[in-house]
Amino acid sequence: MSRFPISDHFDGERFFNPYGPPPRPLKDVVAWQRTRQRAPWPAFVPLRAHPAPPREVPPGRIAVTFIGHSTFLVRTPSAVFITDPVFTTHAGPFGRTGPRRVRPPALGLAELPALDLVLLTHNHYDHLQPSSLRALASRGTPALVASLGLGPLGKALRYRSAVELDWWQSHGIPDVARVTSVPARHFSARTLWDRNRTLWAGFIVEAGGVTVYFAGDTGYSPAFEEIGRRFPRIDLALIPIGAYEPRWFMQPVHVNPEEAVRIHLDVRARRSIGMHFGTFQLTDEAIDEPIAALSRARDAAGVPAEAFAVLDFGETAIV
């Protein structure tokens, strides 16, 4: 018997998306792999130097540093946290197989400050690497807040606190932050046999008078308008813009830049920053196409460049 209550996104055995078509079945994965036309990527892209992240921020400000893919270091007046930390060379089992990084992490593990919080949205290899999580457990005394089903992993890795949340559930860390899990449209799996046994989500972090939305991986859905209604002041949104081609296959689980701009507008973020691009070649678009497509989508929607942009790897923005 499952330890999770049956809900509008859990059937007693597996989680599912309550809106839109499901992710493509295995036969479509095989069809894509047989017919895919991948744009060439460089084998290695060197990093440019940027100033180190600040050690503090004034009230009402957020410092956000892009480490790579979906990993950000975020500092608010009351909390320092990291998102979906992956510091391995590959996005596959043991961090040694699967898609290889073309850019190294812009901050090394030893360069990170003490952490209050680690966020974990779902269990795909490009978002969850146990070796990275284990290394971070000793960076201060961080709490791990994860999607439903991933809490035991945090306990096994000896986090001082490991909490798993269902959509719309919240967890407060006294004097640090309040974290709320919010819906995403995606799926979970680490093997051929555990598909959708754990949940996927985004997170809202309210900390020190500011609000940060970390979307995780997601396709587009009506849930974003609901997130915007429930959290009417999102100061910073971190939204995926890459890994979206071919659309016939990726549309149920990964937004393209046009849909990313729609998310920005739906949640009414004061500022958004793109992620999930330029690190691992997971899909078929060119390495720089997400940034170019974001610019076109932003212009078409009348969104100013400063409202939704990307950071260079290692770059810090003060929001």
Salient structural properties:
single chain; Metallo-beta-lactamase, Chain A; seven-stranded mixed sheet
Describe this structure in words.
The chain is α/β, with parallel strands linked by helices and 319 residues long. The protein has one domain: Ribonuclease Z/Hydroxyacylglutathione hydrolase-like (Metallo-beta-lactamase, Chain A, 4-Layer Sandwich), CATH 3.60.15. Helices cover 18% and strands 22% of the residues. The strands form 2 sheets. Strands 6-5-4-3-2-1-14 form a 7-stranded mixed beta sheet. Strands 7-8-9-10-11-12-13 form a 7-stranded mixed beta sheet, with helices on one face. The model has no long low-confidence stretch (mean pLDDT 95).
As for the CATH topology, it is Metallo-beta-lactamase, Chain A
Radius of gyration: 18 Å
Structural class computed from helices and strand pairing: alpha/beta
* CATH homologous group name: Ribonuclease Z/Hydroxyacylglutathione hydrolase-like
Which quaternary structure do these chains form? Answer: single chain
What global shape is seen? Answer: globular
Q: So, CATH architecture?
A: 4-Layer Sandwich
Unreliably modeled segments: none
CATH class: Alpha Beta
Give the N-terminus to C-terminus distance in angstroms: 46 Å
Mean pLDDT: 95
Number of helices: 7
Helix content: 10-25%
> Sheet bearing the most strands, described?
7 strands, mixed
Query: How many β-strand stretches?
Result: 14
Total domain count: 1
Summarize the helix and strand pattern as letters.
Answer: HEEEEHEHEEEEEHEHHEHEE
